Amino acid sequence: MQFIDFTKDAFRRPDNTNKFLLDIPRDEVGFAEIDIHKKTDNDSYEEADYEVIDDLDKITIIMRNPADIRVKYN
Fold first, then answer.
1. In the chain, where do the E strands start and end?
2. From its phi and psi, is residue 32 left (phi > 0), alpha (psi between -120 and 50) or beta?
3. Whole-angstrom distance, CA of residue 57 vs CA of residue 35
4. Which residues in the chain show pLDDT less than 70?
5. Which residues contact 40 (CB under 8 A, 6 or more apart)?
6. What are the Cα distances from residue 8, in Å, to 1, 26, 41, 44?
7. Is the pTM of this model over 0.85?
8. CA nearest 3: which of 51, 25, 47, 35?
9. Are strands 2-6 and 51-54 parallel, antiparallel or unpaired?
10. How far apart are the first and last CA of the chain?
11. Residues 41-52 pLDDT 10s
C-alpha cells in the first residue's frame, strides 16, 4: 500500500461554507480505493471523519476541520 501525506495547510475553504476541501489529481492515486487517516498529537494516525467526491480527473476530500492527513491507496 502506498500513501501521500498532506498538511492541514493544503486544504482550501470555499467562501460561505464551513467545510474544507483538498483536491488530489487522479494520476497521483489512480482509480484504487483510498483510505484517509488524520495525524494525532503523538504522531500516530486514526480514522478521519471525511467525505469524498470521486471525479474522473481528481478526488476531492471534504472535512469539517482540516488536519494533517495520510491518504493510503494501492
1. 2-6, 20-25, 34-39, 45-47, 51-54, 58-63, 69-73
2. beta
3. 18
4. none
5. 46
6. 22, 20, 14, 16
7. yes
8. 35
9. unpaired
10. 5
11. 998 999 999 999
For the chain, the structural domain boundaries read 2-73
C-alpha cell at 43: 504522531
- Stated as kind and residue range, the H or E segment containing 18 is none
Are 53 and 62 in contact by the 8 Å Cβ rule? The answer is yes
Q: What is the CA radius of gyration of the chain?
A: 12
Instruction: For residue 51, give the C-alpha cell.
Output: 467525505
Residue 27's pLDDT is what?
A: 92
What confidence score (pLDDT) does residue 32 get? 83
C-alpha–C-alpha distance, residues 66 and 59, integer Å: 16
